[in-house]
Fold:
Amino acid sequence: MSAYPGPLKNLLDELKRLPGVGAKSAERYAFFLLKDEKADALRLADAVRAIKEDLTPCPECGLVTDEPPCAVCRDPKRDRGIVLVVEQPKDVYALEALGRYRGVYFVLLGTVRLLDGVDERQLDLKPLERRLRSGEVREVVLGLTAELEGDQTALHLAQWLRPFGVAITRLARGLGPGQRLADAPRSSLEDALLERRPIAPG
Amino acid sequence: MSAYPGPLKNLLDELKRLPGVGAKSAERYAFFLLKDEKADALRLADAVRAIKEDLTPCPECGLVTDEPPCAVCRDPKRDRGIVLVVEQPKDVYALEALGRYRGVYFVLLGTVRLLDGVDERQLDLKPLERRLRSGEVREVVLGLTAELEGDQTALHLAQWLRPFGVAITRLARGLGPGQRLADAPRSSLEDALLERRPIAPG
Structure:
């Protein structure tokens, strides 16, 4: 017989949906929560609920926020002249953790659907268009993943952006830190060759 | 700045409490839930809540259940003459998955507190006592972990059980399947030597 009572079985099934979580990890998490203090475990339940109920996309850039506009768009010190276009909120968090970018963002929330082919109807570019029409944007940086889907999206966006007459750039590609040529993926090597830079004379 | 909105930060903190979940895994899970369909993510929140709100210890054996008494204690085919004492519900699930044990269980839910020293006041043995006094129990098998804490608990239970006049046994210890002597933990080798069994003559 299966000794798991229904609620425990359900929790195991839901945990197994998380990326990289198999039966063993799901059991480890579920048994931890089973032994956990009730109030502590319920805080996790509430935290999961809150990101779906209290977060909305920022009307200006699409980044998830609990008080629109988002913290970046609200910040008067950010340079509204540069807009970095990324695929997902987590791309923004990685860049903010770096702390070197002072412009604003535009998050393409629809990217998940790009698997079906690039289709402008699937990308809601209206907030970006409003920003471009305001006349304050000098440069749009495309920060899409260097993969088929990201490249297609970048191409599509570059065409879409042309009429606005702003500078269009993309993030640099090449070898990562410590990356050995012998181990580098073929496309990385290709990028590193194509985007080679002159060395300042000594 | 930290770009994480409050609710996302909270979720990351709660996920990091799960065993073996560091910052990277917490981010992977949180970003998955952020992109997940709302109804799907809320099922996880509800499943966590349900194991704390809908599960209670079985009044007979202590195993968590959503309809007391638990499925094992309810099963008329189980042999109430043998009671296997284990530390946690997950020990029961492992044994039930094996499908070779036909007796009933007693789950020592208080074991977590044994870190402070074995103290009978910390173990609620009343349901076990009721079973013993009913006269149907022939044997109590101690299935505690072969570690300091489990050994102390087993010793304490053996003393507590003596007046009831039932057979007291414990699970066998020794080398695991495929375990090489050279790699075996010292205590495993010791158990394997002490509990060596005669080989039937060929």
About this structure: The two ends of chain B are 76 Å apart (CA to CA). The beta strands of chain B are 56-57, 64-65, 79-86, 103-107, 139-142, 167-170.
